Amino acid sequence: MLSRILQNVLFSWLPLAYAAVTTRTIDDTVGDLVTGAKPTYVPTWQGPNCAGCAINPPLNDVFMQTYTALTYAPEDFPVMSIEFSFTGTAVEVYFILANYVGDGVTTETMCNFTLDGQYISTFHHVPTTSTDYDFNSLVFSKDGLSNTEHTLLISTSGLMILSLPQFPPLRLL
């Protein structure tokens, strides 16, 4: 009993440590807004100043007025990917999804998500007849991760469809 009282007296003056969840954003062009680390694109992708691109979302609706996109054609690019590393317990990926922008323009979006070398899921957006863009569309989310370094690979490898991933920012928790 005395040791319990002594323990309470000894440790009652220690301040409590509080941990807060913080959210970090990795922009497609600027990179991690805290560390500056940037995603790696294979092959080189295009941004908003793409000459000859048929899909051009209005920049005033885009986070930091940046996005990166490329149309996947298996005969031209056998593998198309975005890869980045992060430390955190959760990750969310958002895309700009295009719908109808004109006859013959590929707006279907399909890609695989691989986390730490393990395939997790495939995302598939079938465009509607709307001419609206779907901004900040959550296309991948994973929580419950250990608070260690992780690598996320977003790829079109093995997909047999023309597709258009448009990568605005993602959030890390």
> In sequence order, what are the helices and strands, one letter per element?
HEEEEEEEEEEEE
Strand order of the largest sheet: 2-1-12-6-9
Mean pLDDT: 78
Please summarize the sheet with the most strands: 5 strands, antiparallel
Morphology = globular
Helical percent range?
A: under 10%
Helical stretch tally? 1
Please give the radius of gyration in angstroms: 21 Å
* Unreliably modeled segments: 1-18, 168-173
How many β-strand runs? 12
Report the span from N to C terminus: 43 Å
Structural class designation: mainly beta
Percent of sequence in beta strands = 35-45%
Describe this structure in words.
With about 170 residues, the chain is mainly β. It has one helix and twelve strands; from the N terminus they run αββββββββββββ. It has one helix at about 1-10, and strands at about 25, 30, 40, 70, 80-90, 90-95, 110-115, 120-125, 135-140, 150-155, 165, 170. A hairpin with a 3-residue loop joins strand 1 (about 25) and strand 2 (about 30). The longest helix is centred in the N-terminal third of the chain and has 10 residues, at about 1-10. The protein is globular and about 45 Å long. The termini are far apart.
SSE diagram, text form:
Elements: H1 2-11, E1 24-27, E2 31-32, E3 40-42, E4 68-69, E5 81-88, E6 91-97, E7 109-115, E8 118-125, E9 134-142, E10 148-155, E11 166-167, E12 170-172
Antiparallel strand pairs: 1-2, 1-12, 3-5, 4-11, 5-10, 6-9, 6-12, 7-8, 7-10
